[in-house]
Write a structure and sequence with these properties.
The chain has 331 residues and is α/β, with parallel strands linked by helices. The protein has helices at residues 15-23, 37-55, 82-87, 110-125, 139-152, 203-211, 232-238, 295-301, 308-314, and strands spanning 60-63, 91-94, 130-135, 155-159, 191-193, 217-221, 223-225, 228-229, 248-254, 257-259, 277-280, 287-290, 319-323. The strands form four sheets. It has a five-stranded parallel beta sheet, with helices on one face. Strands 2-3-4 form a three-stranded parallel beta sheet. The longest helix is centred in the first third of the chain and has 19 residues, at 37-55.
Length: 331
Amino acid sequence: PRRPVNQMKQIVIPLFIIIMAASCSKDSGDGNGNVNYRQEMRDFVQGISSYAKGLDPTFIVIPQNGIELVTQNGEPDGTPDPYYLALIDGCGQEELFYGYDNHDDVPTPADETEWMLPFLTIAKNAGKPILVTDYCSTPAHIDDSYTRNDEAGFTSFAAPERELTVIPTYPGPIHLENEGHVVALGDVRNFLYLINPENYLKKSMFIYAIIATNYDLLIVDLFFNEESPFTAEEVEEMRAKANGGRRLVIAYVSIGEAEDYRWYWQTGWKPGNPSWLGEENPDWEGNFTVRYWDPEWQKIIYGNDNSYVKKVLDAGFDGIYLDRIDAFENF
């Protein structure tokens, strides 16, 4: 996401080009039936964004990881993809400086950081705020994470554990805390990533814990639990900061994997049934690879009144945080 005012010109694309980019793939294969997995994910995100912004033009769309999609060939020196950049509002990136490959509180290898930085810079120079989540828990590493992200012009969150279940107690006050009203992604100076409410017995306790903080942006799941999605009234409650300011509230949605604890999961589903459902992620129980370009999977995510994105819109969230954008790497 965000921060310093960008002096570069933002990419401006005529509306008819945006619509065409979202509705048809410009390079989905090689003509021989082989799938261009990177482009299919790019098309998927563009379709989600066009659908959501068609219903609410102010709706914020932030893909997490898969930052290679910002260039047409997926290389750090490649040509920026104007269609993709026109249809996203920011970029999320995990493990830029700490926690790479599930090694929490360990500095990310320098070569991995150096691979990611040019892509993130391209997005930032196109006017897209960058939200970085580093996984670190010792004060020295937390301080270093915030310093390095500040120097790069990124907004960051030092997550003390990967399950994203806790509100950090360090630093206090929170990094770059401010009392202002946050109404746009470019206003965000800090954020809280709290998508697992398992430490809270009741939804009201979870909401109370959030409104006791001063974070500018909140990323939460659409559901407190699978029987209890957040309502528009509850989302409005979570917009209040303790210091009297207002924040943005963004809903987390995984589009590159299916999760067996979600409302859409059906009895009897297993790898290969339905045909687009793949193997379970060995690192995350209950998460399954999907052929994300399959129309049946995409119908679950967006494009109709029972879709995931429509549920997020109906609940009054300010935007959506799309995870597992890097799922193209599985193929």
